Amino acid sequence: MHRRFLIAVGALIALAAPAATLGAQAQTGTSARQTRSASLHAVRALQARALVAAGLPARAVTAAFATPTSAATASLVLAAGDMNGDGVDDVLDARYRGVGPGERLVLFCRDGVTGSVRWRKIMPATEGHAYIPAPQLLGPQGLPGVVIVDVGSAQAGSTTTLS
Questions:
Q1: What strands lie across the sheet with 143-156, from one edge to the other?
Q2: H helices within 1-103, ranges in order?
Q3: Using CA atoms, how far apart are residues 138 and 41, in angstroms rounded to an integer?
Q4: How far apart are CA 99 and CA 117, in angstroms?
Q5: d(Cα 144, Cα 126) in Å, to the nearest integer?
Q6: pLDDT for 19-29, tens place per residue?
Q7: CB 151 within 8 A of CB 130
Q8: DSSP three-state, residue 86
């Protein structure tokens, strides 16, 4: 699972750069919106193929990428391990949305066989905080689980402190 996670994260990082470039090259007016939409769709398709090639279940990845996102929503798809013990790895589908001064995280666990949502967790938007889901083996038996890291920041003058 660790190897697949690293491959998937690497693929997402490599594919994020073209998305930023495509957005920067957008034109003005209606054609710019159409170009941006088509470009983002192409990047999302590349990301989905890279995740499936890294070994994530195709149905779960397809379900995660088929869920519509608005321009204000960012998404992240991660390998989660076999969360329900059916022998097929499941997928974490993290959705970020700017709400006021912060970002809210809605985290879905998708079944690796069907792609359906098994459970969800909502972390409310908090100014100066970012929530990062990380699949981990937990407990004395080392069962697949999720740790949500809360990265906070505070600014005093010209100094920013991360905690």
A1: 129-138, 143-156, 159-162
A2: 2-24, 30-53, 58-66
A3: 35
A4: 23
A5: 27
A6: 333 333 334 44
A7: yes
A8: coil
CA distance linking residue 12 with residue 5, whole number of Å: 11
List beta partners, residue 119: 109
Q: Specify the residue for token string 């974490």.
A: 92
| Residue whose pair of structure tokens reads 């993290």 in the numeric block | 94
Whether the model pTM is above 0.70: no
pLDDT 10s digits, 17-57: 333 333 333 344 455 555 556 666 677 777 788 778 777 77
CA distance 87 to 79: 14
Q: How far apart are CA 63 and CA 153, in angstroms?
A: 34
> What is the total residue count of the chain?
163
Instruction: Estimate to the nearest angstrom the gap between the alpha carbon of 50 and the chain centroid.
Output: 14
Question: 122 - beta bridge partners?
Answer: 106
